[in-house]
Records
---
Amino acid sequence: MSNHFVSLLLATAAPSIAALPFEAQTIDSKIAIGYGLAIGDVDGDGKQDVLLADAKEIVWYKNPGWEKTVIAKNLTLRDNVCLATRDLNGDGKVEIAVGAQWNPGETTSEAESGAVFFLERPEKEGGQWQPVKLPHEPTVHRMHWVKTDAGKHALVVLPLHGRGNVNGAGANGVKIIAYTFPEKPADPAAWTQSVIDDSLHVTHNFDVRSAGGAEELLIGGKEALLVAKPSGAGWTAQRLPQSGTGGGPRWGGAGEVRFFPRAGESADAAVAIEPFHGPNLTFFRYESTTRQWMRQVIDTSFNQGHALGAGDLLEARGSEIIAGWREPNAGKQFGIKVYSEAAGKWTGEWLGEPNTMACEDLKLADLNGDGKLDVIAAGRATRNIVIYWNRSGK
């Protein structure tokens, strides 16, 4: 953390506030960067653990004491950048994949930019997981395990740029690849690939949700929001037609995107941070009469907006948007806010104290089994992982 950032943090730290019913617990205050978080049961004890893709290490924090275990390190010369966890074989323990060799300025060389690994679980608990290297595109940035059919899964990997592109432009779109999870994942040759889409020239993140027997993706890109679904042996992808600005800035592409759950409603919805690392938080609602996705600008005050979630945190209010940014904005503040809707208007409240979480990533999960979603966040410049325990209803 730079001296300038530390001075700014101390000078602008806000007094303690009590806006939302959450209790903050720091489980690590010495991470390197905290590129990506994941949630899953690592050891099969029935509890959801926290995992982190840090600069040089892949780390597991064991629920409930949050003991830290490094399961892989120094996978590539450059940093790790993402990870994905999911129980794929039904044994109660997650499988883990990792994206590494983070070098976004190099869009051509596979050797110098990007890497994809499946981590093979050690025979004895506590050992290092063995990396199985898979083919990849440059600028690997995000990944998810996705259910493609009954009992079948794929690792979907999203690069940041199209191959050979410069400043977000070039002849090639981002090649979004699905790696079919094989019976023998330790054999790199057993993994087959299919291209989901290659029409977007810059992407940043994507989300997954259930769609019948399989799951579908919402992808944020420079040119459009894209929904992709498994279809037979391949995939289909469709851009979402949109209109409206909500009185705010025009569309400039999306970085972070999430499906927005709307219990009891037939209308579909999504949320986004725009554009890439941008200042704008937006809400999209599908209008069946016009067949357009109406865009509403909620907030324009972020600086390096980089984390997003959507879910029912406070049952009395319906689903909320949880959004974080990692650099001080015009008001010299950074952190996480929770946005609630009433009569078509959105109001944001701080989650925890401002200027204590330079939010790089966040996840929603029920970590203590009380039926309520907690918020887990990783801070880049603040170098911390914090669990915000949901104390609503008490």
---
Amino acid sequence: MTDHNQKQLGKTLWAIADQLRGAMDADDFRDYMLSFLFLRYLSDNYETAAKKELGKDYPKPKAEDRRAPLAIWYADNAADVPAFEKQMRRKVHYVIEPQHLWSSIAHMARTRSMRGC
């Protein structure tokens, strides 16, 4: 990426951020955005570790099933969830329940915004 393109991208991203935050104070907006970015990072990291841990048992959702793969696994393997979460705490040191994963939150945001249209 050229220096000019990088500067243009930066300007575009700042303009989008300004539109998104509206009348909200920039510092408050930053706090929200950093929280979202951190959640996204933790969620992606957790899903990657879960996929590795579950191996061939990690579900591949059908096209019409918009649930996170872990939500499907949790629903199909309720008796194994405590052992799985214990193992994940050992490996990545935290657990994110499927309904709190970034993909679940993003799906909820998309479907709720569509209902209002």
